[in-house]
Specification:
There is one protein chain. The protein is an all-alpha fold and 367 residues long. It has 3 domains: 44 residues, no CATH class; 200 residues, Rhomboid-like (Rhomboid-like fold, Up-down Bundle); 83 residues, Serine Threonine Protein Phosphatase 5, Tetratricopeptide repeat, CATH 1.25.40. It is 69% helix and 3% strand. Helix 11 packs parallel to helix 13 and helix 13 packs antiparallel against helix 14. The protein starts with a helix and ends with a helix. Bound molecules: zinc ion (ZN). The site of zinc ion has 8 residues, from loops.
């Protein structure tokens, strides 16, 4: 049976209704998306029937994650609602993905954007996100908005890690300052009377956040990540120039539609991997504690199992090698201890920190 919705698509270039299987538009001759891509996009739109889906997704994600962390804090025997809302304990914030400056862990640069320090922090960022993101989404489309959030958040976290002093860092504000910088540039590129007003208000907003941040940091009343804010705004301005703008009907070139969707999927995939790494690291942490406690009470069978699990789930930490080599020596398996020594030495050879298991390795004849 003939179904106009199922059998037709709208040409992204000239907006004519054309058969869904056409590779080129018979009216404007532009190459078309495949019928699979059209159907997939319709499916996504059916699941997310919003005017600004990217804004919704980002907002729901950061708020939902805040609730999950709050529940974890409240269910902890030592903490309650007060801690969850006003002063979340560092150990839980760290376990859930915050990053510590000076200790660069790549996946934390991504997960940290979704973690917030209490109700004031999340409300402030949620309000900023709700205010600036719809404009970004109208100019660059939903897919690029989500991709840009991840790129800007990760980039600003990286600069904060390299340039900032000691401290634990989390929050979406680096990405959001990126959006403000991006919106200013987008509005400048639009070059209409209204858009130039938007540009000016974005510049004022960014300037206010930076000046406010510098003042409160120097008076010492609040911890504000100025490095993430400033680098976020600069990165956002650059991205605002580099990324293609869409028209009122969306992108008019096939490569832009495909490129923005691909970048979005890549960035969402990267987030999934980052949170997966976080889960694995927490598993490793749990086994590491079990390994250390079992060695202390001389329960060596249990220790060997736990140390092995800690090592297998996180080989990036020196302590994983240290404890696993220790238990292998205790159990008299110097062959395996030696193998781990060689592997560990190689892994940490470029590191400034002295290798903690060096002496143990010498005792089993590995120099
Ligand atoms: Zn056409």
């Amino acid at each position: 049976m003939y179904d106009p919705d199922k059998d037709h698509k709208i040409c992204h270039s000239c907006q004519s209704e054309i058969p869904i299987q056409d590779n080129r538009c018979p009216y404007c001759n532009q190459p078309q998306l495949s019928s699979f891509e059209v159907k997939f996009a319709r499916l996504v739109k059916g699941i997310l029937p919003f005017k600004t889906p990217a804004t919704r997704i980002l907002l729901v994600t950061i708020i939902a994650y805040f609730f999950l962390i709050s529940i974890e804090i409240i269910s902890h025997p030592q903490f309650g609602i007060r801690e969850a809302l006003l002063n979340p304990p560092v150990e839980i914030i760290y376990r859930r993905g915050a990053h510590v400056r000076g200790n660069l862990v790549w996946w934390r640069l991504i997960t940290a954007n979704f973690v917030h320090f209490g109700i004031i922090h999340i409300l402030f960022n949620a309000w900023a996100l709700k205010t600036v993101t719809p404009y970004i989404e109208r100019i660059y489309g939903a897919a690029l908005t989500i991709a840009a959030f991840v790129l800007l958040g990760t980039g600003s976290m990286l600069f904060s890690n390299i340039l900032g002093g000691q401290g634990i860092v989390a929050g979406a504000s680096g990405a959001l300052m990126g959006f403000i910088g991006m919106a200013a540039v987008a509005a400048h590129r639009e070059n209409t009377v209204i858009s130039l007003q938007i540009r000016n208000s974005m510049i004022k907003w960014a300037a206010f956040v930076v000046v406010f941040g510098l003042v409160v940091s120097y008076t010492g009343s609040m911890g504000v990540d100025n490095f993430a804010h400033i680098s976020g705004a600069i990165l956002g301005a650059i991205l605002g120039f580099v990324l293609p703008k869409q028209s009122t009907t969306g992108f008019t070139k096939r490569w832009m539609i495909r490129g923005s969707r691909l970048l979005c999927m890549l960035m969402v995939g990267l987030c999934a991997v980052a949170f997966g790494m976080m889960g694995l690291s927490n598993v490793s942490e749990k086994y590491q504690n079990e390994c250390i406690n079992s060695i202390k009470i001389q329960s060596f069978e249990k220790a060997e199992q736990a140390c092995s699990m800690a090592y297998n789930t996180d080989k990036s930490r020196m302590i994983s090698y240290h404890n696993y080599i220790l238990i292998k020596i205790i159990k008299g398996d110097s062959k395996e201890a030696g193998r781990l020594c060689k592997e560990g030495r190689e892994r940490f050879s470029n590191q400034k920190e002295p290798i903690s298991f060096d002496e143990m390795c010498k005792s089993v004849g590995v120099y």
